[in-house]
Specification:
Helix content is 30%, strand content 15%. The chain is an alpha/beta fold and 206 residues long. The protein has a four-stranded mixed β-sheet, covered by helices on one side. Helix 3 packs across helix 4 and helix 4 crosses helix 6. The longest helix is centred in the middle third of the chain and has 13 residues.
Length: 206
């Protein structure tokens, strides 16, 4: 899958930025097979990933309940809930849907994505309905990343990413701590999606 969405929502706290930049330098095979799937309910979409994301059914039900009163951009409840489910966090963090999904998107064995096609179809359909954001977005990661990201080089990220449009948000000690080196990534975005209305965390202005 070559589609790269920048989702403006920094609600992933200490784990957000690190997950964004754990990308392989290898070129992966693009897959568009998810496009062949019909759009279905969120409950049906998460069935194939239950083995990889424990408790995802309960989280999906919770997301749908919270999205019942959200009616914007012509999204269905299932579409809205697919975005909210992506934004949710729980413990252990390794079992959060976004972590497991991005791990699969980075896998060189593209067959591992097959169980995600139904959810990807629903999520990408929802994101396509949202207006695109054009402008600079920011993210930060603890550590000195200059060795990995050099000037004049082109990088292809295969995963979904979460960023903020307000650089000052990165000063939060809760997000990145207050000690040690820090790398700020600025990206000129042409197809970002603002998911604040659909985020599980409503108190963050992104």
């Amino acid at each position: 899958m070559a589609t790269k969405y920048s989702i403006e929502n920094k609600t992933f706290h200490n784990h957000q930025s690190e997950d964004n930049f754990h990308e392989s330098s290898k070129t992966l095979t693009s897959t568009q097979d998810y496009q062949k799937k019909s759009t279905i309910t969120l409950e049906e979409a998460v069935k194939p990933i239950v083995l990889f994301v424990p408790n995802v059914k309960d989280r999906a039900n919770e997301a749908k309940l919270k999205c019942k009163n959200i009616v914007t951009n012509n999204l269905s409840i299932d579409e809205s809930a697919s975005i909210m489910l992506y934004s949710m966090e729980w413990k252990p963090k390794e079992e959060c849907l976004r972590i497991v999904l991005n791990r699969a998107l980075r896998d060189e064995n593209r067959n591992v994505l097959a169980c995600w096609f139904l959810y990807l179809k629903l999520l990408l359909t929802a994101l396509d309905r949202l207006p695109s954001f054009h402008g600079f977005i920011y993210s930060g990661i603890k550590g000195d990343m200059r060795e990995y990201y050099r000037k004049e080089e082109t990088f292809l990220w295969w995963t979904f990413g979460s960023y903020t449009s307000v650089m000052d948000d990165l000063k939060s000690k809760q997000l990145l701590g207050s000690t040690g080196p820090l790398t700020i990534i600025a990206i000129q975005c042409i197809n970002g999606k603002d998911i604040r209305q659909y985020s599980y965390f409503k108190d963050i202005n992104d």
